[in-house]
Amino acid sequence: MDTKKLTKLVSGLSISHVTTSDDGAIAIHFTNRSTLLVSRDTKGLAAAFREQDTPPVASGTTNRPTRRQCEYLEFIRKYMARFGVAPAESDMQRHFMVSAPSVNQMIKGLERRGYITRRRDFTGHAVPRSIRVVADPC
Length: 138
Fold this sequence. Notes:
alpha+beta; Arc Repressor Mutant, subunit A; 2 domains; two-stranded antiparallel sheet; 21% strand; elongated
């Protein structure tokens, strides 16, 4: 795959997780459910990009957020409407009266499920106050 085209495809995407296979290939999964596959071939490295895979849904379940996740999404929306910036994790910690790790896990879960996105700096860390609500599933 052309490097410029690949860069354009993955620019701005947040990584959800990375997996490897027995043959040494690496799959980089993004929060929007797309995947970048990197493998070794005779000429060097080969890359393939797959658009938004739909996750398998177990029978009898839906891909709906929990009540608590909806509360966090609603808080983020209202905070942004009032103050014009996304809330910091400490703002959510005070509002919901929970610990910092609890808020961090909730935000990671919302991002993993594709309900929010966060900008990343060059090291891959989330930029403070960069949360954006992507989906309105509640």
